[in-house]
């Protein structure tokens, strides 16, 4: 019999991955669509402006699971693993692609639940930094794997495959993926930092602010906070951080060059020993080199975050913005 994820297992996956109908860039800048599908999935070539339906997303996810994930999960956990284990393992591998090398698998197969949970919870970092969302996802996967229990909102579901949606309407944005109150507050703070009036009661975000952000970044303007909005928000923050780093490096490089030239300026007869001016010449060269590297760094970051630049110039240079979003 062909094994597959259960309906609740799929709902669990969608709750964390989200289902986005219009292509967007993930925080790393990779074009993504549907439930976290990229060109690397082998089931779709994601292009700027691409739009798919929910039914097409389900079909593509099924294909990706069949081709890429389920064989690997069943090989790692065994063909006779429980449905809960299969659902948990598939969520983990869909997110990491590393179930074949994850140390928690050996502990699980050795029937050591304590060590299994401990090792599974270690997979909570992105770029070396602990990510709250991954910490929560790993904890939920561990509970599903070891105790056979889904999160409460999924356990309560009876029919259909629905992504958890915040019930707030009207002036508050809908939250269409699984987020804690703390995570919602972080998203709200990020919007405020970027100049959007996202103020709302704890655990809520102003809908108009979300729609304004979505419009500026060529996202689907629906007032819903999902993976596309959060990923784009993260890219905005990352772009500002990288730009600040480059500016500091450029200023630092210029300072080294100019400062050392002033400090080493010859006010009297030139020294006979060339070594007397060599340190100043070296410092100048280093300073200019640092500045050149910093300029190249900023140019690379501008290319990498061209979608962010497009959002900032769309009103004044719409054609340029459209071009920057086309690749």
UniProtKB/TrEMBL annotation:
Reactions accelerated catalytically: Hydrolysis of (1->4)-beta-linkages between N-acetylmuramic acid and N-acetyl-D-glucosamine residues in a peptidoglycan and between N-acetyl-D-glucosamine residues in chitodextrins
Sequence intervals crossing the membrane: 282-300
Domain (Peptidoglycan binding-like) ranges: 182-233
Keywords: Antimicrobial, Bacteriolytic enzyme, Glycosidase, Host cytoplasm, Hydrolase, Membrane, Transmembrane, Transmembrane helix
EC number: 3.2.1.17
Domain of life (superkingdom): Bacteria
InterPro entries reported for this sequence: Bacteriophage_GH24, Endolysin_autolysin, Glyco_hydro_24, Lysozyme-like_dom_sf, Lysozyme_dom_sf, Peptidoglycan-bd-like, PGBD-like_sf, PGBDSf
Membership in a protein family: Belongs to the glycosyl hydrolase 24 family.
Protein's recorded name: Lysozyme
């Amino acid at each position: 019999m062909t094994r597959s994820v259960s309906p609740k297992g799929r709902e669990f996956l969608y709750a964390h991955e989200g289902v986005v109908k219009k292509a967007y860039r993930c925080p790393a800048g990779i074009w993504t669509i549907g439930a976290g599908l990229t060109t690397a999935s082998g089931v779709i070539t994601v292009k700027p402006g691409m739009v798919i339906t929910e039914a097409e997303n389900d079909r593509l996810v099924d294909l990706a699971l069949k081709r890429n994930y389920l064989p690997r999960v069943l090989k790692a956990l065994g063909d006779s693993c429980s449905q809960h284990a299969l659902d948990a393992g598939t969520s983990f591998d869909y997110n990491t692609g590393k179930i074949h090398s994850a140390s928690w698998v050996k502990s699980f197969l050795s029937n050591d639940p304590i060590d299994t949970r401990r090792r599974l919870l270690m997979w909570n970092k992105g770029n070396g930094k602990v990510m709250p969302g991954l910490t929560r996802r790993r904890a939920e996967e561990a509970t599903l794997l070891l105790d056979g229990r889904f999160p409460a909102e999924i356990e309560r579901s009876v029919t259909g495959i629905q992504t958890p949606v915040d019930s707030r309407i009207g002036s508050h944005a809908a939250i269409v993926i699984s987020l804690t109150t703390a995570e919602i507050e972080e998203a709200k703070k990020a919007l405020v930092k970027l100049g959007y009036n996202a103020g709302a009661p704890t655990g809520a975000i102003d809908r108009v602010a979300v729609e304004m952000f979505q419009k500026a970044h060529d996202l689907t303007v629906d007032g819903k906070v999902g993976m596309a909005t959060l990923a784009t928000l993260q890219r905005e923050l990352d772009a500002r951080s990288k730009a600040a780093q480059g500016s500091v490096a450029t200023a630092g490089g210029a300072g080294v060059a100019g400062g050392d030239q002033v400090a080493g300026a010859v006010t009297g007869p030139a020294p006979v020993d060339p070594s007397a001016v060599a340190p100043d010449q070296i410092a100048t060269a280093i300073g200019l080199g640092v500045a050149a590297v910093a300029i190249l760094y900023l140019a690379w970051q501008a290319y990498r975050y061209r979608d962010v630049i497009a959002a900032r110039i769309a009103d004044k240079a719409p054609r340029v913005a459209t071009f920057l979003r086309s690749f």
